[in-house]
Specification:
2 domains; 5 helices; Rossmann fold; single chain; PH-domain like; 202 residues; 7-stranded antiparallel sheet; alpha+beta
Length: 202
């Protein structure tokens, strides 16, 4: 979701100014105290004046977000789908390789995208490379050459895995002539990093 704001928060008897962040898994606040509210623990969300009011089993948090409160409430109540976060649109040419997520291919086709599973298509708008180790990133150069100049590659890997992490993906991307522009939580167990060709090389 990627929203953040300086604000004050009241939670029970605690109150503090600090930084609130709306992440893919929930709301995080850092100030004189820390507060983490996973989306699964939210019982209700409403806007009262300029406050975002989030009710949980542990209590109710009041985030003084000002005019941004309504936008935060909308984002929490109606979150973007994974396909929206990944930029999948109708009419796109999409290649999916690696340990393929069958659900991704099925949902992309439902959006009228053309999807190739297991084979890289020439002039792909998006390439999804699923990898669980650094050796699986060897296809990045081929993926770069298969996509459109303004296309992108999403590398998806297991969170907290011993064989691959975000820094490892970035190193492989640099070797393949790509730069990272966005990271998402692809699923509760997987992270995704978006890679593109640098503007100077397009």
């Amino acid at each position: 979701m990627g929203r953040e704001a300086r604000c004050s928060v009241r939670f029970g008897r605690q109150s503090s100014a600090g930084k609130a962040m709306l992440e893919t898994s929930g709301i995080l606040f850092r100030g004189d105290f820390r507060l983490k509210i996973p989306f699964g623990g939210i019982k209700s969300v409403r806007v009262v004046g300029d406050d975002l009011v989030v009710k949980t089993a542990e209590g109710t948090a009041w985030f003084a977000l000002g005019p941004a409160a309504a936008g935060w409430a909308e984002a929490i109540l109606n979150p973007r789908s994974v396909l929206d976060k990944l930029g999948v649109k109708a009419g796109m040419l999409i290649s999916v390789v690696g340990a393929v997520d069958a659900g991704l291919a099925r949902e992309a086709r439902a959006r009228s995208a053309t999807v190739s599973v297991g084979r890289l298509l020439r002039d792909s708008d998006l390439v999804f490379l699923f990898a669980d180790s650094a050796t699986k990133l060897g296809r990045l150069k081929t993926a770069r050459n298969s996509m459109r100049l303004n296309g992108s590659v999403w590398v998806v890997w297991p969170k907290g895995g011993p064989k691959l992490d975000e820094d490892g993906v970035r190193r492989a991307a640099k070797s393949a002539g790509l730069v990272d522009v966005k990271v998402v939580s692809y699923s509760p167990t997987q992270s995704g990093l978006k890679l593109v060709i640098p503007l100077a090389n397009r």
